[in-house]
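BUG-264 | component: ligand-complex export | severity: low

The export step for NAP jobs runs without errors, but we want the raw record kept on the ticket for reference. Input record follows.
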Amino acid sequence: MNLDGATCLVTGANRGIGRAIAVELAKRPVRLLAGVRSLDSWAELDVAGQRVRDVRAVRLDLSSRAAIDACFAQLGRELDQVDVLVNNAGAMTGGLLEEQAMEEIEAMVQVNLLAAIQLTQRVLPGMLARGRGTIVNNASISGYAYFPSASTYAASKAGVVAFTESLQRELRGTGVRTLQLVTPGVESDMLDATTALYSRHLDTSGWETLPAAEWARRAVEAIEQDRRVLGPGGRSALAKLASRGPAQLLDAIAARSFSRTPRR
Ligand SMILES: NC(=O)c1ccc[n+]([C@@H]2O[C@H](COP(=O)([O-])OP(=O)(O)OC[C@H]3O[C@@H](n4cnc5c(N)ncnc54)[C@H](OP(=O)(O)O)[C@@H]3O)[C@@H](O)[C@H]2O)c1
């Protein structure tokens, strides 16, 4: 997509990958709507010398259908103008299933999967009417390679993968596209929390990671290039490949790196 003049809405834009994507988009002549759970968490972007036309933080609390509907009501017709929706906001919980708190699992599925579906459904009619739009969904390598300790997070991200792939086929010929980000380990608060939580039972020492700015640069280029999938590269690319073949390879890696007894 040519981003000149495009209205781009990014969720979870106040920190982590979402903020890095907002910073990268601001290098283009876009109208940027930075979706944040709370406006208090938003620190203005430094856009001096950047090409961005307009940046505005908008409240998008994705914690429940009712909260999202209330935010939609505040945004009104502005949502009809969105050309690029980046469903980025997300949460993570993990560890042995029997030790995970059900409230955290529910909140995670809500933001990772249901909120992305609800937002997409809201902006899609405007995109279809204009015959132009890109829905970017931040999936994860966990949406493909289902490792122990990640059962519920992987389930939420596999849902994002299925949603995106199915929608992509449904939208064929409409001018509206989807882009699936198969995000690998990216330096952020979530990665720190994930490493701390998973490493109780899983050897995370071999995880490869990227700076958020680098992943955001690739993501925005993928939007411009009308790509369907942005793959992770490195060892995560091999895990993605292995995930769609027989399960034995991932079984073997998991058997080597996981222990039900805490590792430390
Ligand atoms: N980092 C990685 O290694 C990695 C790997 C694969 C996929 N991902 C995916 O990439 C996305 C961004 O992750 P990140 O690493 O940047 O995480 P992060 O640093 O923890 O940031 C998460 C973002 O999501 C927002 N968010 C969470 N729950 C929300 C809710 N109920 N309503 C509105 N916003 C909410 C947070 O807002 P608050 O500041 O208000 O909490 C924050 O902006 C997620 O979908 C994640 O699953 C990350």
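Assignee comment: Attached the raw record above. The domain at 7-257 is CATH 3.40.50.720 (Rossmann fold).
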